[in-house]
């Protein structure tokens, strides 16, 4: 009796796997690779986080002022929760006080370091240039100082800086007044007038930025030193001539 279990196919043909119509069998699909892990965030130290928050606060206070700045926005820009900001500064007033204190010290240090000459006119030039340098290089800081401070704030502001600078100028003018036979009691008045003139001009120059800084300083000193009745037609800085 004949075995028809292979329906006439040879054993080798019967063992082959059937191939679907349309071509060769596709290779088995490779398993999908796992999704790439997002880069882990670098955790800041407490000191680094504090510096980040101060920098963000400085920028916001410069852009919007104290009243229009919120803790929510400070936290949002820093990508932290509001309690983190409160933990470091106790609130918006605390952050503002730290920012202003730093700017006051930075401006005073810059002006004090600049006052190295012996001649009063050169000292005036150096003070004017130092203030304009600060305005140019630390624009956000200057904007923070010249904005109105919150009523409840006991921190320093731009006026307190100007008073400190005026006191330094007063000592210089007092010695010069004695040498020239003027009343040294008037040195305080003149120091306030000189520093106020430079500061107010600096606020104006912050927005227009022309003429260039050295030219502004030269004309300030021209007015302060020579007076309206003895203005030079083309003033220049003595210190600039030596460079």
UniProtKB/TrEMBL annotation:
Biased composition (Pro residues): 28-38
GO MF, one annotated term: transcription cis-regulatory region binding
DNA-binding region ranges: 70-89
Keyword Transcription belongs to the record: yes
Sequence segments annotated as region (Disordered): 1-47
Keywords of this entry: DNA-binding, Transcription, Transcription regulation
Record-given protein name: TetR family transcriptional regulator
Organism of origin: Planosporangium mesophilum
